[in-house]
Structure to design on (840 residues):
């Protein structure tokens, strides 16, 4: 059976690629009058570390979203309207990431950080729900999936997203009392996902996992 | 017969993907001095709801344009100059959407909203005409279409866009006296299209609809 | 023989798609205080027509560049370094277009327009040279071309770009004394290219032209 | 064996294409009040040459990164997690380029240039390390490579990046005492890469080089 989802994947890749690249527009070069003072310019650059950190964190998070999207769509061969709109929801949320990223960079080190982190982690709760929705729609209807996919593979993919939700929810709740810890929690989950993503490889020929 | 339109579809997907992602650049984080006042920052964020609404509406509308474009090009196998330029017109109008979106966000809740909504809905009248032009060019010349396409399928696709025009025209006229109602009318049409898009599936093997 | 240029075409399409879509960022919504005066907002919008004109002209010109690029690469099957860098030069110049476009929009109706038009038309002289370079490299080395391409087809493509150069050069020279006429000359050439682009169709099976 | 990396290459091409095109956003048209003085506008434009230079240099450098990426991925047929994240690191660094480019344009001709050049060349040291990492991961595991790749080809690709590192490191160190010379050194290396890139062509059928 031929894959029917090539153009959806191409469009999604385009949106992820643009969303991930637009993040850099939030990095503004220092405007301080440091023309004649290299040391001052170097200091201004180093003082921007919260912007660089927020940028890196969000780049990494969109990259992991793309890897996951890639992995899910390797298992999807046909599409229906529900699937297309669930995918559209994921893309919508992915393009939104630059907004709380800018908040994070702007309010780092101020008492208002908690609001920025709540917006940031709240968005990832929604993203997690959207990925669960996408895989829920796809896995409920075996006609949409790669023909030879095994039950183990379906369950594995499902489980992989399941613990994402409570972690992101905890990070969201934590943001109100300890915003820094909330960000660390997110970073830990994403690092875990990055390191374990190989184990979820369900490509044809090794259907039950590596 | 081989499809000749792959590169047109790829380029169009690129333009749609960028147009849909650039919308987020209109969302600006609050500039109010709320460093030390989380409540004030939260309030500033909530006060931006017209921007979020305009952003979401336009994201959704471009996404539906892309779904429709996708659907039409599944039926088109060859291209000529007229088709390429009708497609170029659609892409031109799609990239324009961010402009009245910014107007909408900026003038929401002011007496000038009617002008913003007229610009917004007027653009969608033009988009509708461009889609009718594209499908008119393609369906007039059966050489351009998928060989085994049925007359029912051609008529179905045509009818689908036909009632878009009067609805968008009504929304345009309504914008002058009741701008809010005009936006609701657009949103209703797009929701209808989203929910019925499955019924228009004319992919090979189920040519007469699902 | 398999085409070797798929990834070059994909990358080029990406750059064209982004360059064409970024143009819209130059359109800024009116900042005048027209919150309570719809008529004033409408007037401000209409007063922006030079921006809309410059935007449309540049969109159209990049679109025609893409159509031409598409047409040339349908005849190219293999690549070498010279070809890749000639293509890179075209992409470089394409991304530059937004700069003189912004100049054009900004200085329309002022005595400084001539400088803006000279920058704009000068860029198109360079673009024309770059396209001639690309096709020169490709056609000098028949190994790079579609195997069954005819001599007529090669000459036809060459001739098509040849008269572009004197027209763009004339437009460049004209810009210093009559900038408006210079823009009209460009628009006429591009319209001619748009209308005759069908005649250049050299796709397999109709190798000697339509 | 079928290539498994199509979607990685597509996504990477998207990121490179956007990163290369976004550079132009740093070019701002002159804001001086030159409406009635064409000569003044022309002078302001010419005075922006450091911006144009920085833009051209960075465009060229990203283009060469893309050519190299293209060349490496022609030899890679399968992927694992390490490869995907090494590739993600390259993309991350590529999107960063616009930041030191803006620094370079802004501080050209001032005593603070050295800091800007150090940031610029330092980024290219990291990019070089990332490319070495990617090719290190790929070449250590022959399962990932094109089946019929020769040892000579693997070594050739490796050597090609090896002398990039000391040159970029030297440019980085040089930036503190002679920033202009540091940029010239980078430009020379990139020109050398551009001119010799043909010799590295290891496409199937001419596996041992041209």
């Amino acid at each position: 059976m031929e894959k029917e989802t090539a153009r959806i994947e191409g469009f999604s890749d385009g949106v992820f690629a643009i969303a991930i690249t637009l993040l850099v527009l939030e990095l503004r070069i220092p405007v301080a009058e440091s023309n004649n003072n290299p040391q001052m310019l170097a200091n201004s650059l180093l003082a921007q570390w919260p912007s660089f950190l927020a940028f890196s964190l969000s780049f990494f998070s969109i990259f992991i979203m793309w890897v996951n999207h890639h992995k899910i769509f390797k298992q999807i061969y046909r599409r229906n309207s529900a699937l297309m709109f669930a995918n559209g929801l994921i893309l919508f949320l992915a393009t939104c990431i630059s907004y709380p990223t800018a908040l994070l960079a702007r309010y780092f080190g101020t008492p208002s950080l908690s609001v920025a982190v709540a917006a940031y982690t709240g968005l990832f709760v929604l993203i997690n729900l959207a990925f669960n929705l996408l895989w829920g729609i796809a896995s409920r209807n075996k006609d949409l999936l790669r023909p030879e996919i095994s039950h183990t593979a379906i369950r594995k993919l499902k489980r992989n997203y399941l613990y994402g939700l409570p972690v992101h929810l905890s990070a969201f709740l934590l943001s109100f009392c300890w915003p820094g810890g909330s960000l660390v929690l997110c970073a830990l989950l994403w690092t875990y996902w990055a390191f374990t993503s190989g184990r979820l490889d369900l490509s044809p020929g090794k259907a039950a996992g590596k």
